[in-house]
Design goal:
Layout lengths: L1 E6 L14 H5 L10 E4 L3 E3 L5 H7 L9 E3 L26 E3 L5 E6 L5 E6 L5 E4 L19 H5 L8 E4 L5 H9 L8 E4 L10 H9 L10 E3 L12 E6 L5 H9 L6 E4 L8 H13 L5 E4 L3 H6 L30 E4 L1 H12 L4 H25 L4 E6 L10 H19 L3 E6 L2 E6 L1
Parallel strand pairs: 3-4, 8-9, 9-10, 12-16, 12-17, 13-14, 13-15, 15-16
Antiparallel strand pairs: 1-2, 1-11, 2-3, 5-6, 6-7, 7-8, 17-18
Length: about 450
């Protein structure tokens, strides 16, 4: 089964008409994208892009053999152009199946926004799933896909899809749910479509998609469904550094947003009577996916070394494939997001009395070194996927106190030692992630 993407952009295209934003200004030439439309084996057209006949011709295809045109979402832009000779567009009712004369089978999949997703089966058993803009399959069970709606994830043929096309950037949780339900595994080719102006085109777009285990292709690309494509090799350990309000936490969360059952390890805890801190914690919680779990603890070593435990130690998070699957990682281990190492260090220094000069010299230094060494050794030995956040310090004003300078120095040492055990190291500056390694 061959699929040609006549367009890969959002319904209004990229750049958006009349939009002055920086992303649209950079979306020129090969980075420009027309509204997403799919041509399957020259016979089935799903959604319409401006000038579909010309778009097909540019891709070396023709629409003369199209026997069915389906729409996946309401169209609120200019009137759709239906080339002469094509059947009028229609839509399949949710859960209904359409059999085409050339051997393709199309099943409508319910989604959680206005529109319809389509599962397409080829004559030789290949299967793909296409979701409309901003959509996730409706009725999927969180975590293990055991609810009655699981059939929508697996489709009529059962098992993981060969190819999935969806709005990865706007709905990473949709990809997480498909993974949780078994509809996407390590061999599924995940291609981003409906690409809009939220992410700059070029390297940043491909970097973000690769972190989700997905890729983007230019308009006019033809894909063979079921043909092997190397899935991005996701790092097992990542350290994200950055200054205050640099966007480092958002970057770390984004890296795991497309995977299920993430355990968010908050090292800051709660601070009674501190309303500003409470507001920070609330904002962090609100932007996390609802399927994530939270552990408020600084006891990181047991979490890193116990690759089956969840929050509270010993809670089974389920045998869910996540990032790192296929690289020696046990599939039952939930990914960890640790935010952040600076607060962990503050807690450790509190416990060993490192703020007091006399205590520091009398054994606090050695006690802290033992704790940091144990943490670094646990990161080296862990089989979990880990994304950790830390503050990058020492580039500004020298602290006025000995204890402040001590914290700065120890955090610098911890970042360097922890980062040495990570396959990928990022520095976030003004919301932009710069790859230092990986």
């Amino acid at each position: 089964m061959e699929l040609t993407l006549l367009g890969t952009g959002a319904p209004r295209g990229l750049p958006r008409p009349g939009c002055p934003c920086a992303v649209c200004a950079r979306a020129v030439g090969g980075e420009a994208r027309a509204a997403t439309a799919l041509l399957v084996d020259g016979a089935l057209l799903i959604d319409l892009t401006p000038g579909p006949a010309f778009a097909a011709a540019r891709a070396g295809q023709s629409l003369t053999a199209v026997r069915q045109v389906l729409l996946s979402h309401p169209h609120d832009g200019p009137a759709l152009e239906v080339p002469a000779g094509l059947p009028q567009p229609g839509r399949v009712a949710d859960g209904r199946e359409l059999a085409l004369l050339d051997g393709h089978r199309v099943r409508a999949v319910a989604v959680d926004v206005p529109g319809t997703g389509y599962e397409i089966g080829g004559p030789d058993g290949e299967r793909l799933l296409y979701l409309p803009p901003g959509a996730a399959p409706a009725g999927l069970g969180e975590g293990n896909g055991t609810t009655a709606g699981r059939g929508d994830a697996h489709g009529a043929g059962g098992g993981p899809y060969d190819l999935v096309l969806l709005d990865v950037l706007a709905r990473p949780d949709a990809l997480a749910r498909l993974r949780a339900g078994g509809a996407v595994d390590a061999a599924t080719d995940v291609v981003a479509v409906h690409i809009d102006h939220e992410v700059p085109p070029g390297p940043e777009l491909h970097r973000r998609l690769a972190a989700a285990g997905a890729r983007a292709v230019p308009d006019g690309s033809s894909l063979v469904v079921g043909e092997y494509h190397a899935v991005p090799d996701l790092p097992r350990r990542t350290l994200v550094l950055g200054g205050a309000r640099s966007g480092k936490s958002a970057e770390a969360e984004r890296r795991l947003a497309a995977f299920p059952d993430v355990l968010y390890v908050a090292t800051g805890g709660t601070r009674e009577g501190d309303t500003e801190w409470a507001q920070r914690v609330t904002l962090h919680r609100e932007r996390r996916p609802g399927s994530w779990r939270t552990a408020e603890t600084c006891d990181l070593v047991p979490l890193l070394l116990d690759d089956d435990a969840g929050a509270g130690g010993g809670t089974d998070l389920g045998a869910v494939p996540g990032p790192g699957t296929g690289t020696g990682r046990k599939p039952g281990a939930a990914p960890l997001l640790i935010d952040c190492l600076a607060l962990w260090l503050t807690h450790a220094m509190d416990e060993v009395g490192a703020w007091d000069d006399a205590t520091w010299e009398a054994g606090g230094r050695q006690a802290l070194r033992e704790r940091t060494d144990a943490l670094v050794a646990a990161v080296r030995a862990t089989r979990r996927t880990v994304v950790a956040v830390s503050n990058e310090v020492g580039s500004g004003v020298v602290p006025a106190t000995a204890s402040g300078r001590r914290f700065r120095d120890e955090l610098g040492r911890l970042n360097a030692a922890f980062g040495a055990e990570c396959e990928q190291l990022l520095l976030v500056v003004a919301g932009q992630a710069l790859a230092l390694r990986g």
